Amino acid sequence: MARHRNIRNNKSYDYDDDYDVYGQSYEDDYGVSPGTIAQYSYSRSSGKDVNISSYMPSEDTVEEEVWEDDLCFESSAAAQRHRSSGSVDTSSLNPIMLDACLDHIRDAVGENYSENQMRQASAKFNCNYEKAIDFLLNSSGQPSNSKNTTSRLPDKAKNKDCATATPHRTLGSNQRNTAVAEYAKREKEEKKQISLVVIGHVDAGKSTMMGHLLYQQGVVSKRLIHKYEQESKKIGKTSFAYAWVLDETGEERSRGVTMDVAHNRFETEHRIVTLMDAPGHRDFIPNMITGASEADVAVLVIGASTGEFEAGFGIGGQTREHALLVRSLGVSQLAVAVNKLDTLNWCQKRFKEILEKMRQFLKQAGFKESDVTYVPVSGLLGENLTAKATASELTSWYKGPSLIEVIDKFRAPQRPIAFPFRFCVNDVFRGQGSGITMSGKIESGGICHGTKVVVMPAAERGLIKSVDSNDGQSNSEFVLAGEHATLTLHGVDIMKVTTGSVLCDIDNPIRAVTRIQARIIVFSIEVPITRGFPVELHYKSVHEPAIIRRIISQLHRSTGEVVTKKPKFISKGHNALVEVELTRPVCLEEYSSLKELGRFTLRYGGSTIAACVVTKLLQ
């Protein structure tokens, strides 16, 4: 799957002057929903639901006769006569501008609103199609075929036999019930899905190993591999041919280093696997965290060559840091692929040496021994990846599974389907046609096209025009928690949606806060953490400056009981309750409510210093 990098956090997007045909600036007041983030925030502890529609301005009621005529037309000729009969006075408008405005509105809202409603919105905002679309999506008035509208009509209108379009939907209890039913059906009839991230020290051979696995699985054609072999040979990097399956950009190929998270997909006998190849270089740890935060399971790749394992496992190496990161982000199942063992003639002694050191470390990191499997492989030769090992030097002492067999046996987690809809945006770009296209992962609930959502922390309402599952589900009309998806959103200013934004249930939005209370476990750190300590918070695709505002208490690592109240500092190995303050609002959930959105990490000086879970959202 191609990666999109058009729009990233803290980067501007340049608009062509002629895009806005009416000369209306995006900054004027288009698309800014009324109210502030605070209005949309809510507290679960209050036991009250917040209905965002209550903050939207109500408009004048449309005459019943107009709604009646718009709902049902006895013939297309009658419809045309009605539309040109002057139900809405548009004589003062420029007809060319009116037609252009109506075309934009139809493209955004489809057939869910009548011609008369669209004309009325155009007239109300003097052919500013952006404001007109925003009004139709956000106003208290319903589409012309909604139940609320029908109930206001005379009996004769209700009894007319006419076809109506599918109404817009909000994420209510009925849709959540539908999502639960759809999830249960897929669990029975389809393979279970898992998201797998490949991690490890730089130059451990992650991309080459997984590129060769994809080739052996039939995901990549022999012709393409031959092309990569010829191209890589020209620049003196013949061994990089399989790595280029995942390293797609010119800079990655020229430098021979993975820089961004590459996505792909393959199937095993019992699983549909979304593959994420994460960068190993320490300069790209933020990108690695983005991939790891979406993962259910992980493959840790270790280079077995002389000195290579020691470089990754020692101080400053990414083997330790990556393992700690994925565990702190919720990954509990791990396959350790000991790569490049063929360069040592499949030395059993070297394999056991690596296994013993990693087993002790991973146990301290929180992995259960039963959830970790060690597999000797050769990514370059393709040995023991998708089929049992055949090299006599290896089969003489290794009788275990191949890497694909280990992946096939990973347990798929239970998804929070019944929880309100949450979609974390990882990338934003302009697709074909109008609207905003976003890629990311659905963390909870489910959604289908035609549903209204709210974008946080901008508090902007919009309409989901289309959905597309990136995980190969047969029914892409409905995407569920755990799936990577691409959504097209209408009615929202593209400048209001960035990586880190969350699309959510319109009646139950996620909170956007700048202060949180969290329980943290401190890793290796040279200086103690004190009040006012500067850190960088990493959460999904968000990385924001923050400070430790307060150290509330030091906790017992096993029981969680308070050991010391208001300690002056915390250091390596300590477990503590702290208050973190950010510079900008971030959308999180309490860990007890939704663990997928309740974890984050803290980094300082280029190293990960703490794993954290959200215990309370403050403000």
Automatic annotation (TrEMBL):
Catalytic activity: GTP + H2O = GDP + phosphate + H(+)
SUPFAM superfamilies in alphabetical order: EF-Tu/eEF-1alpha/eIF2-gamma C-terminal domain (SSF50465), HBS1-like domain (SSF109732), P-loop containing nucleoside triphosphate hydrolases (SSF52540), Translation proteins (SSF50447)
CDD domains recorded: EF1_alpha, HBS1-like_II, HBS1_C_III
GO molecular function terms attached to this record: GTP binding; GTPase activity
Protein's cellular compartments: Cytoplasm
Disordered as annotated region, ranges: 138-171
Domain Tr-type G: 191-417
Classification via Pfam families: GTP-eEF1A_C (PF22594), GTP_EFTU (PF00009)
Name listed for the protein in its UniProt record: Tr-type G domain-containing protein
Gene source species: Ciona savignyi (Pacific transparent sea squirt)
Lineage, broadest ranks: Eukaryota, Metazoa, Chordata, Tunicata, Ascidiacea
